[in-house]
Amino acid sequence: MAKGGGGAGTDGWGQYVSTYFNIPVVNDAIGGTSARSYTTKGDFTKVFNQVKSGDWVIIEFGHNDGSSNPDNGTTDCAGNGYNTTCTVVDNGQSVVIHTYNYYIQNAITTLAAKGVKTVVSSVTPDNIWPLGPGSGNRFVGYASLAASRTGADYVDHNDYVVQAFKALGQTKVNTFFPNNQHLHTSPAGAAVVAQAFVKGLSCGKSALKSHLTSAANSIPNGCISGL
């Protein structure tokens, strides 16, 4: 999602959605962060301080939230319980950490208190074939749950990217991932991933879709039944 992606000619999808909106888009995504580190390093606080009532925030995490040993500062506590905690050792100090859902749900409720609406977007798939609906990791389900628990809107970005990638085919999609990696896309790939988000948004019930321009109508592929 972050501008510049993982470096080496890659790019994130966040800024590419601006083409499809009639409102300004600010991309505050930071590469390498997780729901935990975006919270603990104060990045969510920066977002809280700049938004105002009537704004929208799109939240997507998951690629950096998985387990690590030793702890790398981004790992979330396993599970989706709001009150579940774990203790890790960070720089020689014992630190209590929380789940993805704890961090995301707290962000959503803080934003809602300011009159800001949130769209929770599920983590996108790695370029590991075969792809298929539901092929994402556990954070896809965690994202959906965080949205349903808080009344936020939800886009299954994972399944809409899968749909777009499958329509293009593996040979074409492989060109979107420089240096034989499976996570960070080229600018061309980022544009496709952005289109997949917009398609998912336009197919859903979020009021944010009222701010889409006519350009969204030209995005290929249809709505996915059941999402």
Automatic annotation (TrEMBL):
GO terms for molecular function: hydrolase activity. Keywords: Hydrolase. Pfam families: Lipase_GDSL_2. The keyword Hydrolase applies. The keyword Mitochondrion does not apply. PANTHER family: PUTATIVE (AFU_ORTHOLOGUE AFUA_2G17250)-RELATED (PTHR43695), RHAMNOGALACTURONAN ACETYLESTERASE (PTHR43695:SF1). This is SGNH hydrolase.
